[in-house]
Amino acid sequence: VYNAAPDWSVLVGDVLGVPEPHLVLHQHQHQGQTFSFPGIRVSSPLSLLVNGRRPPGSALAPARLALTNDPS
């Protein structure tokens, strides 16, 4: 689940509903071996249903702004 707050989670036994799942096939190569596995991307915890309810707004990670200064 992308953009989830660090202190938000689901518990073993919770029922998750994913209304708009996005299936992605991950393929990675490392030291001559290929690893592949499917994953379901969920862009926000607020798009889930946990035990039939939407998570609270606090489940969403706060926005962060990062700035750099390149003097050249």
Could you outline the blueprint of secondary structure elements for this entry?
Blueprint lengths: L15 E2 L4 E9 L2 E9 L7 E2 L22
Antiparallel strand pairs: 1-4, 2-3
Organism: Psilopogon haemacephalus
Pfam family, one: TTC5_OB
Protein name: TTC5 protein
Account of the protein in words:
- It is a single chain.
- With 72 residues, the protein is mostly beta strands.
- Helix content is 0%, strand content 31%.
- It has no helices and 4 strands.
- The strands form 2 sheets. A two-stranded antiparallel sheet has the order 1-4.
- A hairpin with a 2-residue loop joins strand 2 (22-30) and strand 3.
- The mean pLDDT is 91.
Brief rundown of the structure:
The chain has 72 residues and is mainly beta. Helix content is 0%, strand content 31%.
Q: Would you count the extended β strands for me?
A: 4
Helix and strand element order: EEEE
Mean residue pLDDT? 91
pLDDT < 50 runs, ≥5 residues: none
Q: Strands of the biggest beta sheet: in what spatial order?
A: 1-4
Please bin the fraction of helical residues: under 10%
**Helical element count?**
0
Rg to the nearest angstrom? 17 Å
As a percent range, the share of strand residues is 25-35%
From the structure above, extract its key features:
4 strands, mainly beta, flat, two-stranded antiparallel sheet, two-stranded antiparallel ribbon, 0% helix, 72 residues
